[in-house]
């Protein structure tokens, strides 16, 4: 086994989605990644436009911290990460 096979390359986040039906407005994601998530008027998280968003590690952390797993991450092929 080659060394690179043992440690597969980490997937890159291409798209971030919040499932509005699952979001309870806990705002953990907003605290961890305020340049990517914001609460709207209904206190449900929305994803801000791409630009100054946090790096992938921070976005993974935000998704993992969501109490209802409402944050969905997709790679460049549209596969859920
Ligand atoms: S952490 Fe999850 S439940 Fe809380 S606001 Fe973000 S998406 Fe919604």
Automatic annotation (TrEMBL):
It comes from the Bacteria. The keyword Electron transport applies. The keyword Electron transport applies. GO terms for molecular function: electron transfer activity; iron ion binding; iron-sulfur cluster binding. Keywords: Electron transport, Iron, Iron-sulfur, Metal-binding, Transport. Ferredoxins are iron-sulfur proteins that transfer electrons in a wide variety of metabolic reactions. This is Ferredoxin. It comes from candidate division WWE3 bacterium.
């Amino acid at each position: 086994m080659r060394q690179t096979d043992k440690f597969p390359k980490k997937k890159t986040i291409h798209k971030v989605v919040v499932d509005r039906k699952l979001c309870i407005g806990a705002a953990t994601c907003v605290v961890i990644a305020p340049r990517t998530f914001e609460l709207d008027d209904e206190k449900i998280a929305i994803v801000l436009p791409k630009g100054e968003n946090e790096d992938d590690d921070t976005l993974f952390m935000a998704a993992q911290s969501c109490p209802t797993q409402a944050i969905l991450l997709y790679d460049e092929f549209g596969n859920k990460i």
